[in-house]
Design brief:
Blueprint lengths: L12 H4 L4 H25 L6 E4 L2 E8 L13 H22 L6 H24 L2 E9 L2 E2 L5 H25 L1
Antiparallel strand pairs: 1-2, 2-3, 3-4
Helix pairs in contact: 2-3, 2-4, 3-4, 4-5
């Protein structure tokens, strides 16, 4: 899980196979481009806070979140923009470091790290340029709505799941 972690044969992952750094960073870049493109389309085509039905249980609704997940810290007066931006930069730097220590053979972990990295950078771009993250995917059931989210948020969520599955897989193989 951690950079240059020893494998079951005692060799660091980086000694056994090429690093996942460049494929991972490339995939993260693809996530950033897709995220920014979908946000650009939402900004160009949608009026703020006016839902457009796509399918039962799914709207596109342009929203802006100056806080973190689930609008945490959204009403904090603006300082959170810089705190969350700094945190995203620090996490992104660590994820690049982590990717450098992951083997290309560990595709699940590489995909997970790339998803989290791309999502973090996608939301960081919004936060730095707009002061808030652009959200537009509105999933609901009846009158209950999940907080609006975007492609970057989805990549982060799926990335964390992939990392956790990779860690569980690795912990099981270490026990054997």
């Amino acid at each position: 899980m951690w950079p240059a972690m020893a494998s079951s044969d005692g060799l660091p992952e980086t000694a056994r196979a090429p690093s996942a750094l460049w494929p991972g960073v490339s995939l993260a870049g693809t996530v950033v481009v897709a995220d920014q493109l979908t946000k650009w389309l939402a900004l160009a085509q949608l009026a703020p806070y006016q839902p457009v039905a796509v399918a039962p249980g799914l709207n596109v609704t342009l929203a802006f979140n100056p806080g973190a997940a689930f609008s945490f810290l959204a009403a904090s007066g603006g300082w959170q923009r810089w705190l969350l931006s700094g945190l995203a930069l620090a996490i992104s730097a660590y994820l690049v470091y982590w990717l450098a220590g992951v083997s290309r053979r560990d595709r699940l972990q590489m995909l997970g790290l790339a998803g989290v990295l791309g999502g973090a950078i996608g939301n960081l771009i919004d936060r730095l340029y707009l002061g808030a993250v652009v959200d537009f995917i509105d999933v609901y059931y009846g009158e209950w709505h999940w907080p609006a989210f975007n492609l970057a948020d989805s990549a982060i969520t799926l990335g964390v799941i992939a990392i956790l599955l990779s860690v569980l897989r690795d912990s099981r193989s270490c026990r054997k």
